[in-house]
Amino acid sequence: MSKAKQPECQEGDTIKGQQFAIELVHQLVVPTFVLDAECRVIVWNRACEQLTGMPAADVIGTREHWRAFYSKPRPCLADLVAQERMDEIDRFYVAHESLPDTMRDAQAENWCVMPLLGTERYLALDAAPIRDAAGRLIAVVETLRDMTDRKLAERRLRLIASVFEHSQEGIVITDPAARILDVNGAFTRVTGYSREEVLGQTPALLKSDLQDATFYQDMWQRLNETGQWQGEVWNRKKSGELYPEILHINAVSKGNEITHYIGMFLDITDLKNTQQRLENLANYDSLTGLPNRVLLADRLHQALANAKRHNQLVAICFLDLDDFKLVNDQYGHETGDHFLIEIAQRLLGTIRVNDTVARLGGDEFVLLITDLEHPDELNAILGRICDSIARPFQLGDIALGVSVSIGVTLYPLDDSDPDTLLRHADQSMYQAKQSGRNRYHVFDLQAANAILVRHRELERIRQALQHGEFRLYYQPKVNMRTGEVVGMEALIRWQHPEHGIVPPLEFLPLIENSPLIVEIGEWVLHEALEQMDQWAAAGRPVAVSVNISAHHFQHIDFVARLRAILNEHPDVSPHLLELEILESAALSDIRMMRGVIAACQLMGVTFALDDFGTGYSSLSYLKQLPAETLKIDQSFVRDMLDDQEDLAIIEGVIGLANVFKKHVIAEGVETPEHGLLLMRFGCDYAQGYGISRPMPGNQVPDWIKRFKPDSKWDTWANDQQGHRLDTPLILAQYDHIKWVRRIVEAVEEPGADLTIENLGNPEGCRFGVWYHNEGRARYGHLPEHAEVGATHCSIHRIGAEVIDLRARGDLEAARVKCEELLALKATMLNQLDRLQRSAAAGADAL
Question: Can you give the residue ranges of the PAC domain (predicted)?
């Protein structure tokens, strides 16, 4: 019986084993199910239920119909465990029998829809066969692995990588030390650097140096404080080209420690260019490119603020072209537009760098003239503008000419707001139109009126030139030692119809910095050469020197114009023409001056440095200037008898002339004593009122015939070295003459100061000191010396009587005594002359 029951026990054990295996599968945390040979689900554990949402009761025993729980378009779980898989798994194992069991599991994975849960998951399926003792496939154990999170992570990583690589923004990732770890394609396209070139570098290799150190210090401070920064930066490409970018930097932290920096930037070159174009459209005139009304308003506000801050003036000038409508009407608007462009260019060429020209529309322009210290500075600028516009225009075959009317107001003399200032300038422009056009009018303020007066004066001088009211007078230049007339200096005079002869100092300074000085300078050259032509035709050629202003001499066409003027007078030798330029003007741009002087000298013209000694008088400059003659300024000559310093300067200038082998001439000689001292120091050439006043050209020939040098000069003409000339006597004698003149003036002038030095003390005056010391030692043995002493005492005595009578109010008696005083002075001068001649004769006898 025991043997008969043994199979039952074995069968029971098998059943129990199967149940145990099934229960074990149910307890597994890994989703596991089993298919029998018919592909029916015979085990569906709890992990499968939790993963799929499908209870075991609905799945156990099913085969095909459980697919209904799943739907397309997504693959479903049934696609992984279809009927065909049994044969497929069997074939797989047969083909890989030689492989270890651990390597022969069949696998599959895909996205599956879980309709009951309303989700989809990414599942991986692993299948292993179960065979009977005969090796037949009787079941398959399959496990499911939920790989959804990993797949989503992989998808995110691929997405991130795609975004990183395909982003239009340049991206750079650095470590905490700002060393570059990675860059994207946009970075390389924008910067020109490859990824390999920048790895391990820092973003500093892109620095343009347009941002200073403070900029980057602020950037890092913001990054450290907030973890992010954004702004506009200028960087440099590998090619060296600069470009602007919008940059965002974020610090990536883990805990309190920064692990990375991520920078994202966008090249905004096109945006900047667009902004510039839009700004140009908004702020600049489309036709001329000048600032328009919008930009003008901004610059006007800035100019007014700066003027108030620096205590300067701003001129607001409103310009309107005269008769521009005729240009449009006659030649059409296209020509008119080209004409306005040319006008704009000329205006830009006449103003300074800090000034502004704006176009309001049509033919209306506004000028802002800034940084003016005084209203007078504006005059030259407006003069240039008027002259520039007045020059003819050539547009193709069309010749055009217009003038301009300008209205001006000055801030803060006109302390109005910007709109009012423009309105005042506009009003003044209309007043300029009403006054005859082709002029400027200043808004009615006191300082502005001064400019208007100056403009009127310039206009009057211009009219004088046009109407032939100027004359040339000629002052002789002579050799005092030989008595020879060596030339004439041409001096301009204004023959005013109402005021008579107007001297040059009353009108030349007004035009010194205006274009009018060039016109007058050329007129003087023409007149002087014409007069020289007449003298030469009469058989008496005379050399003439002409003063040339610095503004005229520095004119770009000076050499060419001088050549043309000389060519108009072919009978006059250029060697007879001397140009006088001021020493200070010659030294202002010595290189340019040297070039112009040399070019003129090639024509035969000579040069003199006028007013020498009043400028720099540097030995270096004197060596570089090729002028043939130095003219000692009359301010030194006039006071040389009274001022020892002036006398020393004259002696020094003469010495310099000798060292540099230049001629020297003194101007301002007013007395014989001036000439004697100049001869004593070696200057024989002179001019001045003591020789002759300037005269009209037709009087020159007769004056030359009659001229005789002063008798004192003739006396000492043969004293080439000046050894016999008593310089202290000359100075003392001149001082005595002035002393007598002062007494006479005290009688004739009401309220004159009657305090005369050394009035009753003949030994205390300068002449008396000389007489009793150097004079006695040198001439005491001569009888003329005693005669001079007696006359000198008489002069002091009579002088004291004159002043006493004048003090008591007896003017008539004082005048009679003055006659006696003047006679004594003449006597003493004759005695002094005899004294010196006698002494010279004695010296010659020895």
Answer: 107-159
- Phi, psi torsion values for 116, nearest 5 degrees: -65, -25
- Tokens representing 658 are 């000798």
CA distances from 784 to 429, 791, 830 (A): 79, 11, 10
More confident residue, 623 or 719: 623
Cα dihedral 50, 53, 55, 58 sign: negative
545-548-554-560 Cα dihedral, nearest 10 degrees: -50
Beta strands in 136-256 (DSSP E): 137-146, 170-174, 180-183, 228-236, 242-254
Gap between the Cα atoms of 521 and 527, Å rounded: 10
SS3 845: helix
CA atoms within 13 A on the CB side of 465: 21
Beta strand 500-502 with 544-547 is: unpaired
**How many Å apart are CA 428 and CA 319, to the nearest integer?**
10
Residue type, 88: E
CB 666 within 8 A of CB 650: yes
Of 443, 382, 381, 441, nearest in space to 412 by CA: 443
302, 310 Cβ separation under 8 angstroms: no
Please state, for a pLDDT cut of 70, what percent of the chain lies above it.
87
Residue 837, C-beta contacts closer than 8 angstroms, at least 6 positions apart: 715
Q: Which residue has the tokens 């002494």?
A: 839
The helix (H) or strand (E) run that includes residue 609 is strand 606-612
Cα-based distances in Å from 65 to 39, 125, 336: 12, 20, 93
Pairing mode, strands 577-582 and 629-632: unpaired
Alpha-carbon gap, residue 772 to 792, rounded angstroms? 12
Kindly list the distances between the CA atom of residue 287 and the CA atoms of 284, 339, 385, 723, in Å, as whole numbers in the listed order: 9, 11, 21, 80
Task: Kindly tell me if the per-residue pLDDT of 105 is higher than 60.
Answer: no
396, 401, 407, 412 alpha-carbon torsion, rounded to 10° = 50
Q: Where are the beta strands (DSSP E) in 412-543?
A: 439-442, 470-479, 484-496, 500-502
What does the pLDDT look like over 786-803, one tens digit per residue? 898 899 899 888 888 888
pLDDT tens digits for range 721-773: 444 566 777 777 777 788 888 888 888 887 777 777 777 788 888 888 888 88
Q: 157: buried, middle or exposed (CB in 10 Å: 19+, 13-18, 0-12)?
A: exposed
How far is Cα 42 from Cα 142, in angstroms, rounded to an integer? 12
Measured between alpha carbons, how far is 326 from 340 in angstroms, rounded to an integer? 13
Convert 416-453 to b/e letters by CB count within 10 Å (16 or more is b): bebeebbbbbbbbbebbbeeeebbbbbbebeebeebbe
How confident is residue 15, by pLDDT bands cut at 50, 70 and 90?
Answer: low
CA angle 834, 837, 841 (to 5 degrees): 135
Helix 558-567 to helix 590-603 angle (10° resolution) is: 20
Burial of 98-137, coded b for 16+ CB within 10 Å and e otherwise, reads eeeeeebbbeeeeebbbbeeeeebbbbbbbbbeeeeeeeb
pLDDT digits (tens, 9 = 90+) for 566-614: 999 999 999 999 999 886 665 566 778 888 999 999 999 999 988 776 6
- 502-535 per-residue burial string, b: 16 or more CB within 10 A, e: under 16: beeeebbebbebbbbbbbbbbebbebbbebbbbb
